[in-house]
């Protein structure tokens, strides 16, 4: 990606007066490159702003979708992470308030890497604010945080309390956050002139026939499920619910509520402390056959991907099921075409952009052909067009009798699927 | 978030006491005195510093298997300690196994007490007081976070393999079989993380902050410092007297 420096300079001069800029744009429109340039992650995409930062030796902060890499790794506790970033901070008071309002005071002794995805996202943003950067970029991170906290963060950073910093936000759900107003939004095209992207990235094609993957599904009943990670308060307690295929469910709850934990229990990754799961009325022990009946798509694709090429990644699940080579090939081809990955078959999954990694992870999950799926933020990092395509794929799966539970903070997704909401609050589930 | 008011051992006292205690242990050759030191001096300190669980794990998971092997080899198979005629004294062979195990417990325990009892908010300051600066300070600080993170990342890769049905069950043997498959993703992750983190440190001037933070005044109690120093000096003198 190349910027026309002169045009960028002129345009940036106009906008740097503003302290809060929400960038509108599709995937691969140059938003992330712009943010990385502004915050000096990539010196090749130089902008006037980054040059200014360099000259004045001021700090900048980029928090990208891989939120765990926006945590310093120099402090074994949440408290230590905040303190390290806060040294010499102009925003100590603001950070204290944010920590209190987001409940981080209760997590102060936790290792930052043991927090849930959403909690890590919050910590990454708050610690970046604490470092008092001249420019802070928040790239597809709000999507990982509950709307309540996003609105709190936006309200706080737009106040005078954070007036030293210019915030740049790139997010695919800008319309869903009430505190981001229309006059905060600037189309990315207004800021940079971009030469066309050379990468061979195709759009998602929801029209491909995936019936080869559909297996007849059946109801799941969960009774009195309880789970705790360590001695102490349980993350989930007395969770009971009946789930039926052909009905979309959305699991909601604040960050750290235990949504991913419930998903991991259903797919057999974790073993519950007590409780039962029934499949079609019969006792079922997912932990004895992990990943066989309930496929789990992780929120963070980097935690899910482990192969060295995209095609190996997509084929890993079917291979583990000892399916015939021909069947594996069919599944792989169909899903790679569906998710626009054909030209990337030989690429290393972790070298691809976040948006594409998320698609690879989704394709790899669906390749398993399970009767049930738990999809954790399936549209994370995807623009409106891609998200709509993913919803179409999900709709077709539901229509074909597959059981689906989606974990998402997106209001838009909840409306699109007209689903039953399962609300996880303080470890218990409410419908 | 309020700053911790925890009063602890001064880093210099901590360092000197550790060195004295290690020298004392290397001179120790009386099983009864070593046992006494472990039970009467070290165990209460582990309890006071809430690190007893870690020490317990060290004794059970590392020292106990070594002790059993030593006992079988020197107490039963060889039937004598090293340097004596095989079969000449099984009791002395067993004593040798106990001696080595106790020395391991004491040395390991002293290191555990030295490092694990440092309050998290005093960790960087302690390293700085020990003379570590700049990149070395970053390495030392990172060493305390890298293992939990690496372990967690390993677990996450295992989870990903479970989710895709690549691990047949959750039994220990199945988990061990997965170990070779963890190496490549772990290496890729480590390189990516290292790259991203160094950029982050650079952006936010965190190394500079780390140095500044660690030069803050260190609060410690005179009596605790004197007590720790006294124990280590006493331990050294006792062992020198019993050489």
Strand arrangement within the widest β-sheet of chain A reads 11-12-13-8-14-15
Question: Roughly what is the average pLDDT of chain A, rounded to an integer?
Answer: 87
Rg of chain B, Å, rounded: 23 Å
User: Stretches of chain A where pLDDT falls below 50 for ≥5 residues?
Assistant: 43-51
Rg of chain A, rounded, reads: 22 Å
**Number of separate domains of chain B:** 2
Summed up, the helix count of chain A is 13
- Which class of secondary structure composition applies to the elements of chain B? mainly alpha
C-alpha termini separation of chain B: 52 Å
Pair with the most extensive interface? Answer: A-B, 66 and 49 residues
Structural class determined from secondary elements of chain A: alpha/beta
Give the topology string of chain B: H per helix, E per strand: HHHHHHHHHH
Taking all residues together, what is the mean pLDDT of chain B?
85
Query: What is the ordering of alpha helices and beta strands of chain A?
Result: HEHHEHHHEHEEEEEHEEEHHHEHEHEE
Number of strands of chain B: 0
Low-confidence stretches of chain B: 1-7
Number of strands of chain A: 15
Helix content of chain A: 25-40%
Based on Cα principal axes, name the global outline of chain A: globular
Q: How does this structure look, described?
A:
The complex is a heterodimer of chains A (431) and B (243). Chain A is built from 13 helices and 15 strands. Chain A is α/β, with parallel strands linked by helices and 431 residues long. Chain A has a 6-stranded mixed sheet, with helices on both faces. In chain A, strands 2-3-4-1-5 form a 5-stranded parallel sheet, sandwiched between helices. Chain A has a 4-stranded antiparallel sheet with strand order 7-6-9-10, covered by helices on one side. In chain A, α5 runs antiparallel to α6, α9 packs across α10 and α10 packs antiparallel against α11 (354-366). Chain A is globular, with a radius of gyration of 22 Å. Chain B is mainly α and 243 residues long. Chain B is 77% helix and 0% strand. Chain B has helices at 11-27, 31-48, 52-77, 90-116, 123-129, 134-163, 172-177, 179-204, 206-214, 222-241. The N and C termini of chain B lie far apart (52 Å). At the A-B interface, β2, α4 and α9 of A face α6, α8 and α9 of B.
